[in-house]
Amino acid sequence: MAIRKRIRELGLSQPKVSRMVGRSASWLATQVLPDPENAIRYLWAKDPEAFNRLLRVLQWTPEEFSRETGIQLPGAEIPGSIPVVRYRIPVIDAGAGPPMWNEGAEYITLHIPELRGKREDELFAVRVKGDSMEPTLRDGDIVVFWTGGAPEPGRIVAVHVHWDGVVVKRLQRYNGSWYLYSDNPDHPPVPLTEHDRILGVAATLVRKM
C-alpha cells in the first residue's frame, strides 16, 4: 500500500516511523497498516497532532496524503494544524567555501512548518562535520539556515570564516566583541573578525538517523 511504499522510499522502517510519531515501535504495524483507512480517520479526528507528526515524517501535505493513499479525510484542514509548505533547499558541507548554487549542487526537499513564512531563496543548509557542536549537533546532521534571521547572541549561525570555509557555531558577545563558540567545551571559542561573514541563522535541524 501507499504508506508502506512511502516508508521504503524515505529509507525508514515501520518501528522508526512509529517512534518519530511518538508512539510505540509496533504502533504502525499493529494499529495502522492492518486497517489504514479507519485508523487514519480515527487519528485525524481524535489526535490531530499525531496525524501532523505522521505527515511530517512521510513528507506529505494532507492533500498529497489523500491523493497517494486514496483515504479521503473530512473537513478542509486538520484542527490545529500548521500549513506545510514544500521547500527545495541547497546543501553544502561544513568547511566548504561560500554558498554558490548551480545545477550540479545537492538539494534536499523539506515539508516542515518551522520554515513557514520564509522564502525558499532565503534558505540554505549545511551538513555538519566533526564533534565541535555536540551534543546539540552531531556529525552528519543537516542544519537549515535563514539568511533573513537576526544574528543575536546565543543563536546558532553559519559563518564563512576566511581561513576555514563555512562553519556552524554559536554566536556570543563578550566585552564588546563577537565570538564563535562551540557547544563542545573541548573546542575553544574564536573571535569573529571583519573578514568573516555571517551567512544565516539556524531555522531547523534535519537529524541524521
Automatic annotation (TrEMBL):
InterPro entries: LexA-like, LexA/Signal_pep-like_sf, Pept_S26A_signal_pept_1_Ser-AS, Peptidase_S24_S26A/B/C. It comes from the Bacteria. CDD domains: S24_LexA-like. Residues 92-201 form the Peptidase S24/S26A/S26B/S26C domain. Pfam families: Peptidase_S24 (PF00717). Keywords: DNA-binding, Hydrolase, Protease, Transcription, Transcription regulation. GO terms for cellular component: membrane. One of its GO terms (biological process) is proteolysis. Gene3D superfamilies: Umud Fragment, subunit A (2.10.109.10). One of its GO terms (molecular function) is serine-type endopeptidase activity. This is LexA repressor. It comes from Thermus brockianus.
